[in-house]
């Protein structure tokens, strides 16, 4: 859980950056953000947006960054004119309007104008929330066929599902574009497609280079499993260092990412037995602290 002090420090850091760093530089920095961090920045912009500040510009760029994380081809909009962004996937084109301030009245006609000018298929307004008046307006005959609303929270959830492999960009497209509300087949097809996507087994593609490296251990160790072989290799490469179990797990994951990505149980669970076998072979040393936590080192 994030402490109140650290949250305050985070908000202070974000505010300082928005006030002192040009939005274009923040946009470049944000490429390294994970989705929860993007969401924190979006909320800060929404809480502090007002005329004369850069909060709205940063919010606009972060919304478009989420579009990239969703797999769309994104054209970032200018900060002072035109639409806020254009997202494309295959033949679909969506106009994006980002509103850091919830007081976005008058946006719908402007969004529809950009949809027409850009010959886009739909418009998507992104904000922190919408009231009943907003929803009733967009349901009207003027906007309903071409326009949808989504909160930044929901957009970040979509991006997380895409990042976790639950959704594809095609799934996201089908969620964002207007669905037929009378004939329900399209909605059922979408839900069924998501089920198929989640239940489909992911192919295991183990790197041949990793397997080759694991096979190059001494003959006396080849009878053991991949975890024991990986332990041996890492420890031998760092012959004077004592590794705690968590450190050794991290190093194994770095060196053999594809080999161990499909393990159903944590790598560390194999350490007590793997370490015991390697210790009996005389190739590693094991020591325990007062709490029984093991550390491992190569035995020269």
Characterise the protein shown here:
The protein is α/β, with parallel strands linked by helices and 300 residues long. The chain has two domains: 4-178, Restriction Endonuclease (3-Layer(aba) Sandwich), CATH 3.40.91; 208-298, Winged helix-like DNA-binding domain superfamily/Winged helix DNA-binding domain (Arc Repressor Mutant, subunit A, Orthogonal Bundle). Helix content is 50%, strand content 13%. It has helices at residues 4-20, 23-30, 35-48, 55-69, 107-117, 132-138, 152-163, 169-176, 185-199, 208-214, 226-237, 245-255, 257-260, 271-280, and strands at residues 73-76, 85-89, 92-99, 122-127, 147-151, 243-244, 284-288, 294-298. Strands 1-2-3-4-5 form a five-stranded mixed β-sheet, sandwiched between helices. A three-stranded antiparallel β-sheet has the order 6-8-7. A hairpin with a 5-residue loop joins strand 7 (284-288) and strand 8. Helix 2 (23-30) runs parallel beside helix 4 (55-69). The longest helix has 17 residues, at 4-20. The protein is elongated, with a radius of gyration of 26 Å.
Stated plainly, the CATH topology of the largest domain is called Restriction Endonuclease
> Strand content of the residues, in percent?
5-15%
CATH class of the largest domain, named Alpha Beta
Query: In percent, how helical is the residue content?
Result: 40-55%
Order of helices and strands: HHHHEEEHEHEHHHHHEHHHEE
In the sheet with the most strands, the strands line up as 1-2-3-4-5
Count of individual beta strands: 8
The major pleated sheet works out as: 5 strands, mixed
């Amino acid at each position: 859980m994030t402490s109140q002090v650290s949250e305050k420090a985070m908000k202070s850091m974000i505010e300082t950056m928005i006030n002192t760093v040009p939005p274009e530089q923040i946009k470049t920095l944000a490429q390294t953000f994970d989705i929860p961090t993007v969401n924190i920045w979006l909320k800060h912009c929404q809480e502090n947006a007002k005329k004369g500040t850069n909060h709205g510009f940063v919010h606009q760029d972060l919304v478009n960054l989420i579009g990239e994380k969703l797999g769309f081809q994104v054209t970032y909009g200018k900060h002072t004119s035109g639409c806020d962004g254009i997202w494309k996937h295959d033949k679909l084109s969506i106009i994006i309007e980002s509103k850091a301030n919830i007081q976005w009245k008058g946006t719908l006609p402007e969004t529809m104008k950009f949809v027409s000018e850009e010959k886009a298929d739909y418009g998507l307004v992104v904000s922190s929330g919408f009231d009943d008046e907003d929803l009733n307006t967009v349901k009207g005959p003027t906007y309903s066929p071409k326009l949808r609303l989504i909160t930044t929270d929901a957009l970040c959830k979509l991006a997380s599902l895409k990042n976790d492999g639950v959704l594809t960009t095609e799934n996201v497209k089908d969620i964002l574009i207007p669905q037929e509300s009378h004939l329900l087949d399209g909605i059922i097809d979408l839900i069924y497609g998501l089920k198929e996507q989640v239940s489909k087994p992911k192919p295991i593609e183990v790197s041949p280079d990793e397997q080759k490296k694991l096979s190059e251990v001494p003959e006396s160790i080849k009878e053991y499993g991949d975890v024991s072989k990986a332990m041996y290799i890492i420890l031998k490469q760092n012959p004077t260092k004592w590794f705690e179990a968590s450190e050794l797990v991290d190093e194994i994951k770095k060196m053999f990412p594809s080999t161990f990505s499909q393990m159903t149980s944590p790598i560390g669970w194999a350490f007590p037995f793997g370490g015991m076998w390697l210790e009996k072979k005389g190739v590693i040393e094991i020591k325990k602290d007062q709490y029984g936590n093991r550390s491992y080192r190569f035995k020269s």
